[in-house]
């Protein structure tokens, strides 16, 4: 039975003695009394990998027990091993081997993060969020985290930079179709709408990283700065966008930003067979604004 990784991750990370369980430490727990952690770092479970693990367990059994903690009333919460738990459920198992540990919420979260990082089971966004928790919640520096996880400091920093992307953009990313390098290219674009259009083009046209970087390069001088309260509204932007949808969305975003700064502005869009027509009206004074309204 493979016992490595059950408790050594947190010990190595925080300088504590590693947990080296013996077979006598394991016990079989009813699956119906085990619950996954809702805030666990892995948010995407690929069905194909679950199916592969299910077949492996069917043939060889559970080679590595779950790590769980007692949450009272005879119930347990998974700290590490949710895929094994899911696979055993698919097989109809009533029990599963588990190592029960006493941990508070913070310690359980840290172990779950480290276990997933060491097993490399997280996609690049999940990994970035895990690093963020370990640095923000547990106060680790990037250098310390890199050293103890055996990664370079630049790797940690590059992952964390991805979290600067707006949440809605992160949610659009299908990580088995879009790579980390695709995501890093989007950091050069300040407009959320343009970022979203680029992602759509990546999916529709199956753009490579190089093609994505070229597209971003063409659009980089058309960035609309994020709201800062002191960005000049009349900024001179040279529009060279060829894609009509991106162009239209860029104008709409500009109008939206203008409204937020107090400008009385309206936009009307008409679509014809061969062209779009945009009519933008800007009030000269409050009286005009009331008429426009």
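Q: What amino acid sequence fits the structure above?
A:
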């Amino acid at each position: 039975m493979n016992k490595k990784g059950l408790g050594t991750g947190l010990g190595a990370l925080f300088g504590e003695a590693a947990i080296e369980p013996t077979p006598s430490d394991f016990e079989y727990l009813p699956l119906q009394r085990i619950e996954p952690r809702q805030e666990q770092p892995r948010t995407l479970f690929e069905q194909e990998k679950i199916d592969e693990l299910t077949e492996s367990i069917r043939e060889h059994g559970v080679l590595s027990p779950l790590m769980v903690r007692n949450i009272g009333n005879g119930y347990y919460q998974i700290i590490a091993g949710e895929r094994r738990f899911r696979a055993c459920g698919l097989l109809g198992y009533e029990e599963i081997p588990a190592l029960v540990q006493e941990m508070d919420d913070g310690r359980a979260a840290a172990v779950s993060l480290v276990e997933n990082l060491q097993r490399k089971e997280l996609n690049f966004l999940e990994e970035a969020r895990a690093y963020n928790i370990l640095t923000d919640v547990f106060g680790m520096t990037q250098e310390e985290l890199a050293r103890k996880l055996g990664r370079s400091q630049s790797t940690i920093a590059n992952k964390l930079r991805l979290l600067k992307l707006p949440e809605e953009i992160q949610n659009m990313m299908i990580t088995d179709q879009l790579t980390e390098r695709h995501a890093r290219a989007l950091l050069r674009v300040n407009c959320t709408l343009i970022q979203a259009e680029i992602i759509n083009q990546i999916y529709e046209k199956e753009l490579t990283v190089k093609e994505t970087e070229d597209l971003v390069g063409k659009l980089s001088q058309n960035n609309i700065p994020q709201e800062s309260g002191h960005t000049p509204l009349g900024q001179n932007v040279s529009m060279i966008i060829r894609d009509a949808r991106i162009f239209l969305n860029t104008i709409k975003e500009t109008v939206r930003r203008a409204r937020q700064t107090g400008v009385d502005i309206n936009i009307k869009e008409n679509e014809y067979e061969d062209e779009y027509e945009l009519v933008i009206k800007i009030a000269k004074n409050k009286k005009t604004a009331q008429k426009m309204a």
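Q: And what stands out in the fold?
A: The chain has 13 helices and seven strands.
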